Amino acid sequence: MKIIPILNIQQFEQEVPISDFYSNDLKSHLEKNKDFFHKPHKHDFFLCVLFSKGSGIHEIDFNTYNVKPGSIFFLKPGQTHYWKFYNTPEGYIFFHTQDFYELHFSKSKLEQFPFYYSHKNTPILNLSPSKIKLLESKFKEVNDEYYEDLPYKKQKISSIINVIYINLARHYNSFKTIENTTSATYIETLRALEQIIDNYYKTEKSAKFYANALNITPKHLNRIIKTTLGKTTTDLITDRVILESKRLIVHSNNSLFTISESLGYQDYAYFSRVFKLKTKTTPLEFKNSYK
Predict the structure, then answer these.
(1) Is position 278 within any domain?
(2) How far is CA 176 from the centre of its chain?
(3) Same domain, 143 and 198
(4) SS3 content of the chain, % helix, strand, coil (to 5)
(5) By the 8 A CB rule, do 182 and 227 touch?
(6) Dihedral angle computed from the Cα positions of residues 151, 107, 182 and 194, in that order, rounded to the nearest 10 degrees
């Protein structure tokens, strides 16, 4: 079965021997990777990119965002995206694995940052020229360090990135994400649920399965999801299935029946009804309209 291409850090890294981290100025990065940045693809790492110049669009999981000076984007592993630019952008980009960050900050998790802890939080932050200039200097510091061969290289890079993420989280939290009044315990449960759904959504569709995995009752899990997102547990499971089906419908050459089977639906007619209920179109209509 043909799948969406998944890029890894080794494909970008050339001469610098850090296998779990990559950095570059944006203009150079796009020039080196001009054959595929405009095509839909996935990454198996966390990505952060800052734009100081340029304009265009960035599509992430079928949502389109405008690119402009001051834009910062965050991507988690597995998300599908591509770029389209109207003029040459400038800025900085870095990627890293989860271990790269968490091995240096053993008591911290990437999911502590709001732009990484829920699929429901927006992957973009737009900042004013004065704020973006201060952050750009930190991105440049990371990039300069990456291309130097000095002692404690990984430690310094990870420390600067931590400062960048803290500053970005402070700016991000000034915008609307999941309500600040929501219980911290509920947020932690939501994070855990999204991770479990990512692992099992193709084979497990019942709320009871996920409640059991979290050692809570289905009723309590539903209450948590209602409070945090205004949805049911089943809605969250189905949303993940529909997202993956959209990725495969648009970005692969597989038949709709094959896609249905790969997502755990042996009955294509039933899958089509579920898809239409969520998107207001059939899978075939969606495929044709997207083209």
Answers:
(1) yes
(2) 18
(3) no
(4) 50, 20, 30
(5) yes
(6) 80
Structure confidence at residue 12 (pLDDT): 60
* DSSP states of 187-234: HHHHHHHHHHHHHHTTT---HHHHHHHTTS-HHHHHHHHHHHHSS-HH
**pLDDT classification of 107: cutoffs 50, 70, 90:** low
Nearest residue to 122 via CA among 194, 63, 37, 192: 63
CATH number of the domain bearing residue 188: 1.10.10.60
Residues 6+ apart with CB under 8 A from 31: none
- Tens digit of pLDDT for each residue in 211-232? 999 999 999 999 988 888 888 9
For residue 112 the two structure tokens come to: 């502590």
Report the pLDDT value the prediction gives residue 145, as an integer from 0 to 100.
Answer: 95
What is the Cα gyration radius of the chain? Answer: 20
* Nearest by Cα to 8 from 47, 40, 35, 39: 47
- Residue 249 near residue 235, CB atoms below 8 Å: no
Per the structure, the count of domains in the chain is: 2
CA dihedral 244, 231, 72, 248 (to 10 degrees): 10
DSSP-derived pairing of the beta strands 41-43 and 6-7: parallel
The rounded distance, in Å, linking the Cα atoms of 150 and 155 is 11
Q: State residue 45 phi and psi, 5-degree precision.
A: -145, 175
Nearest to 98 by CA among 77, 121, 83, 84: 77
Residues 164 and 195 in one domain: no
